[in-house]
Amino acid sequence: RLRSPAAPPAATTTSGAPVLDADLAAAFDKIDHARLLDSIGSFPAKGMVADWLRAGVFEPGKGFAPTEEGTPQGGVISPLLLNVALHGLEEAAGVRYHSTGTYAGEVAPGSPTLVRYADDMVALCHSQEQAEQVKARLAEWLAPRGLVFNEDKTRVVHLESGFDFLGFNVRRYRLKLLIKPSKAAVGRLRKRLAAEMRVLRGSNAMAVLAKLNPIIKGWAAYYRTGVSSVIFNSLDSYVWKLVYKWAKYTHPKKSKRWIVDRYFGRHNKFRNDRWVFGDRSSGAYLTKFAWTDIVRHILVKGGASPDDPALADYWAKRRKKVKPPLDEYSLRLHTKQDARCLLCGDGLLAAQPPQSPEQWERWWLQITRRAIVADYLLHHGGSRSPDGDQTRLTHASCHRGHLARLRRNQPQPT
Predict the structure, then answer these.
(1) Where are the domains of the chain?
(2) Whole-number Å distance between alpha carbons of 317 and 300
(3) What are the backbone angles phi and psi of residue 365, rounded to the nearest 5°?
(4) How many CA atoms lie within 13 A of 23 on its CB side?
């Protein structure tokens, strides 16, 4: 779990502040079952956890394989079990926090800072010696749990050289620390977009929009917390070339002017942009990376957990401060309605934000199926909304159900 790290320590050498960039070798495969169950203690569901660990894995074409060690690969419970197994890692690394006073929950002076997500971790240190000490202490702590470092991917680097973490590149340029989408992440995205467009040859514009929009929105939503504006613009240029090439392939005998008039225009009425790719018959259009606003990540206070009932108000206020990746019009309605559907009362968006580009993409696909739409609600009189022309944001499924109920309740002609 990510905790609030202190600011990167000031450089003590010309090469900058050292960072232990660590990776665990086959972490999900090597967790010691007995040690993990011991760490749970008297937890009421301990027996159920033991059953999960021994559940085994069924793979199509390979059959059933028991899990004598580690956690089931791909299992939804596996990340949680890994977190349980790695509980105490911060203390083992020597991380110290202020326990009381104004700075309660913040990293103590001189202490290393550990940031971890699943089996990926980095330790920000104050010296090369401290970085080596942290690595040695962690290796000793991990061994009884059946875990070891992947030495090929574990190294001590410096902020001036930078390192990649969770798809971002973290690097200090002179006195400024910048966190950007990594070159590897951008390269993977470009490769995927090109592959998708090759598959879409011969399809219509709506198929292109259905495939690319969730990818673009999901990737941009994940990386909007970094210094991403330049990369977003670069990716928009790349996507434009891909869709134009697709259009030329689809209409090989048509001129450039015909293709531009057919597919490009000011399809997004909230953007003064005449180079938006879209489908003129439906009004649907391809979103752009640059339309996603950059929103700086707000650090979690100390060790606050979203599962702690005592901190429900803290997390509710925190979620309200984080602007969801919606267009400006929908965002205004979202705020006005306190983020709730006015038909069912449930939240319009997920309570917990996705944690990766892939999860954001699936989130957008889910939104497409149970979409939030700005629409006018009809009433029995047949005119527009009950309180005049007031536009509301609702779940599309709720809106369809509302209209169906109205049709059933309408008096039949005699």
Answers:
(1) 24-148, 183-291, 309-409
(2) 12
(3) -65, -40
(4) 12
